[in-house]
Design a protein that fits this description.
This protein is mainly β. About 5% of the residues lie in helices and about 45% in strands. The strands form 4 sheets. Strands 5, 11, 12, 14, 15, 16, 19 and 20 form an 8-stranded antiparallel sheet that branches. The longest helix is centred in the C-terminal third of the chain and has 7 residues. The mean pLDDT is about 95.
Length: about 280
C-alpha cells in the first residue's frame, strides 16, 4: 500500500515534509537549500522504511543487542503515528506525534509505554523523542534519531567534536579511539561513546552543520561508500557522495532501562551556519 502524502510545513525561511508514517521528517530545506538528504530510490510503501530524512530507530538499533531482532532498527519507523498537535510557536511550526501499544500491538508484549515526538521546524530543526514507562516493571530499549544530512562531497567534509572518543567500528568490528576530526575515506559505520555537539564543515556547499544533542550517550557516523550503496535497492549507486549520517541516541552498552513511571528524552538540534 502506497503511503499517504506528507504534511507540508512552511515558515519564513524553511520548507519541510513530514510523514505520519514513522513520524518521519522526510525533508527540510533552509533558504531553498536542502539540509536533510533523501534518496531518489526510496520506496514509499507500508511496511518499508524510508531512505533519508530522519528515521526513528526504536526500540532497538540495527538487529538489537541480541543481533537477531526484526525489523531492523525496530518498528517505530514503519508504524503509523498519531498527530497529537500542530501549532505555530515564534518563527517555527511544531508538530507533536504519539505512538503507543495500540499502534504496534505485537511489539513489546506485556509492556505499557508511550512515545512522544516533538518536531520543531523553523530556522533550526529541533527534534525531541520521549519514552515513558507506564507499566509496573522496568523495560529497556535502544533509540537513535538516524539523521541523513546533505553534503557537497562527503570525501571533503570534516566532522569535529569526537576527538578522543572511543568507538566501535562496525565495519571491522574493532574498538578504536578517534584522533582529530573524522573524515570519510571508505565505508564508515561507527558508534562513538560520546554525544554533545558535533560540527560538520562542508567546503563544497560553504556551510557548517552544527548538531547538538541532549539525553544521548552515543553518536553514530555512517556512510555506505560505493559497494554498499550499490547493494541497497533503495539507495542510488552514486548517491553516497552527497550524504552523511550523524545520528544520536542510546545503543549497545548505553541502552536505556526505564523504571516504572519514569521517562527519558533524546533531543537533536540541527542548525546551519555559513563558513
Amino acid at each position: 500500500m502506497t503511503l499517504d502524502a506528507p504534511r507540508q510545513i512552511r515558515t519564513d525561511r524553511s520548507v519541510a515534509e513530514v510523514y505520519d508514517y514513522g513520524a518521519h521528517v522526510w525533508s527540510w530545506a533552509l533558504d531553498g537549500e536542502p539540509v536533510l538528504w533523501t534518496s531518489a530510490e526510496s520506496v514509499f510503501e507500508q511496511g518499508k522504511a524510508l531512505r533519508g530524512g530522519v528515521p526513528i530507530c526504536w526500540p532497538w538499533f540495527g538487529p538489537g543487542r541480541t543481533g537477531d531482532l526484526t525489523p531492523a532498527h525496530g518498528f517505530a519507523r514503519i508504524s503509523d503515528w498519531s498527530l497529537d498537535g500542530r501549532v505555530d510557536v515564534a518563527d517555527a511550526e511544531v508538530l507533536t506525534y504519539v505512538l503507543g501499544p495500540d499502534d504496534a500491538p505485537d511489539a513489546l508484549p506485556g509492556e505499557r509505554w508511550r512515545v512522544t515526538y516533538v518536531v520543531s521546524i523553523g530556522d533550526d530543526l529541533d527534534l525531541a523523542l520521549t519514552v515513558e514507562n507506564r507499566g509496573a516493571t522496568p523495560f529497556s530499549y535502544e533509540v537513535a534519531l538516524h539523521t541523513y544530512l546533505t553534503v557537497g562531497d562527503v570525501r571533503q567534509v570534516a566532522i569535529a567534536g569526537l576527538d578522543g572518543a572511543p568507538y566501535l567500528d562496525k565495519v571491522t568490528r574493532a574498538r578504536e579511539v578517534q584522533s582529530g576530526d573524522v573524515t570519510i575515506t571508505a565505508e564508515t559505520d561507527r558508534v562513538y561513546d560520546r554525544a554533545g555537539e558535533v560540527v560538520v564543515t562542508d567546503p563544497v556547499l560553504g556551510r557548517l552543520l552544527r548538531i547538538s544533542t541532549d539525553g544521548a550517550a552515543n553518536t553514530v557516523v555512517w556512510n555506505p561508500w560505493v559497494a554498499k550503496a550499490a547493494a541497497m535497492p533503495d539507495f542510488g549507486d552514486g548517491e553516497w557522495s552527497g550524504m552523511l549520517c550523524i545520528e544520536a541516541g542510546n545503543m549497545l552498552e548505553s541502552a536505556v532501562t526505564l523504571e516504572p513511571g519514569a521517562s527519558r528524552t533524546v533531543r537533536y538540534r540541527l542548525a546551519v551556519e555559513g563558513t
